[in-house]
């Protein structure tokens, strides 16, 4: 069974959030400065998953010619997650 762009986009967004929560928990448990390359790799993974979710959602929206409200919501979710990562201070 083929997974549609909506399901794929939502899975990628959820994976990105899961990786972010794991990163937060690990950051509290260990000194992240001692493992900086690991945490940088996790941050790159979070942003990459979020970008992939947004791109797949946009492709799905384009394929449906903008008719799918749920794909628009998935795109907005991916964009909000990406914005949270990029504009975190």
Annotation keywords:
single chain; 0% strand; elongated
Terminus-to-terminus distance: 42 Å
- The overall strand count is 0
| Rg from alpha-carbon coordinates | 15 Å
Helical residue percent band? over 70%
* Proportion in β-strands: under 5%
Largest sheet: none
> Tally the helices: what do you get?
3
Described by its quaternary structure, the protein is single chain
CA-based shape: elongated
Give an overview in words.
The chain is mainly α. The protein has helices spanning 5-29, 36-63, 69-86. It is elongated.
Short précis:
It contains 3 helices and no strands. The protein is mainly alpha-helical and 89 residues long.
Element layout with pairings:
Layout lengths: L4 H25 L6 H28 L5 H18 L3
Helix pairs in contact: 1-2, 1-3, 2-3
